[in-house]
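Example 3.2
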Amino acid sequence: MHQKNPSQTGPGAPPLLEFTNVTVMIGGKIVLDSASVTIYEGEHLVILGPNGSGKSSFIKTITREYYPVLQGDGVTFQIRGEDVWRVADLRSLLGIVSNDLQYTFTREITGRDVILSGFFSSVGLFRHEVTSAMKAKADEILRFLEVEDLKNRLMTEMSSGEARRFLIGRALVHDPKALILDEPTNSLDLHALHAFRTTLRKIARSGTGIIMVTHNLHDIIPEINRVILMKNGTFCADGPKEEILTDKNIGGLFSVPVHVREEDGWYYATGY
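Structure, written as tokens:
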């Protein structure tokens, strides 16, 4: 992929995502509770929290599967400063890879066709008109992700880690400003985890922002420098990872006694 220049971040740049006091209720249950967060282009960050904390609900609110409860003038729910957007318009801004998406693609589709399907937001290719430019882009992504040797393999024949890399490739066809990854290392063994981390670090260094949503400390690649903690449907801490990833914060987040240690830019929790 072509090297990108990361966009300016900070208060002077328009936020990629801005949520202020956003509440979402599903089936009578509050899944986001006055959640507030601002994310700028070019940032590499993680949203860390236990299962059921609202992380997936946050992503579904971005993709408009969920809608906020209206709460007056104090509510902000914007992408790139816009209150209203089409999901199709998100393609060039946000690439989203989730476990639900991987389940959807567990069918007889080749890896290359999975990537090409990203141009059409389809599950595989049917009567879509695939241009030479699309094919060239897909081949560029195959080389970038180092999966050229797997391009003709069916998704049903791939390991979880291999399939996930093709779904990342599908998300990259529009050169999104950021890649959102929902619990990205679920079901990966050590070899697949190593390959996935290597891929993710390469994407981060290319200039695409990384927004990782996870409950695992060991998912946090060294390139991530901002950590947002989430619990009970709200964001409860936000800052540089060196300040947020402490025994007290992580122990309180997961309600267990832990010792957090750092090793060569990676973080681990022990003692629980």
